[in-house]
Every structure is written in structure tokens, then in C-alpha cells.
Amino acid sequence: MDDKQIIQRYLNDIRRHLVPKLRPGVGISSNFYPASTGGGLLEIKFGPQQANVDQVLATSSTIGHILQIVPQRTFPGDFTGMKFSGTNVVLEGDRLLLIKGGDDPADWTDAAAAKDLEFAFHRGNK
User: Fold this and answer.
1) Are 100 and 109 in contact (CB under 8 A)?
2) Is the separation of the CB atoms in 32 and 60 below 8 Å?
3) In a 3-state reduction of DSSP, which class is residue 28?
4) What pLDDT is recorded for position 123?
5) Average pLDDT across the chain, whole number
6) How far is CA 85 from CA 29, 78, 122, in A?
7) Which of 26, 36, 102, 122 has the most crowded Cβ, counting Cβ within 10 A?
8) Which is it for strands 27-34 and 95-100: parallel, antiparallel or unpaired?
9) Cα–Cα distance between 90 and 25 in angstroms, integer?
10) In angstroms, rounded to a whole number, what is the distance separating the alpha carbons of residues 3 and 45?
């Protein structure tokens, strides 16, 4: 996904749905790493000293390549050839990684942002 308007709208939607779930004084910073083959990785960091800022970084060739760039412990090894679909969620310490696997417009809506966060924070709580 390399449409900056769609990305920024999705980031705004994520932030709007996420802020009510956090304690007062907790900041959110996000980095979005777009992939030219579709989708991308959204890294959201939480904390009392976290600046409230969103960044859209340079486009990489694939999500697997992005996983080589973004420090993370969930996917060790070489994932440059791996393909992702839908939204994959990883919680690591004080951050949330949302791996978006495609450019389908339905995956980048306000409803999709709410669903992605619901999946991240309420898995197993039915």
C-alpha cells in the first residue's frame, strides 16, 4: 500500500479507536512501512514518554523485507519471500505490530481499523 492518503486515514482511525483503551498520559507513536507488493507493517509504540506522532516511511519491496528492517523477535530468520494476507497481529512489550497483507480498500477502512484493534486486544475473550 503506497497511497499516503489511505494510509494516513487508516492511521487516524487506528489512533481514534485506540486512545480510549489507554490510560490518560499514555502516548502513541506509529511508523508505517509500506510494501510495493501490497500492504505493509504498522508499528505502534505505547508509553508515558511516547510522542503522539505518525510517520509513513519509505516503501520497501515486500513485507518480508520490512521484517528484516523493523527490530522484532517474532519472525527470526529470512522472511523476504514470505507472503502475508489479511491482518496479522503481534504484541511485543510496549508495542503492537499490525502486518497488513494487501491493498484491498476494505482492509483500510475505519471498520477495518476497529476490527484490527479488536482482534489485537480481545483475542480469546468471547
Assistant:
1) no
2) no
3) strand
4) 56
5) 88
6) 24, 18, 20
7) 102
8) unpaired
9) 23
10) 23
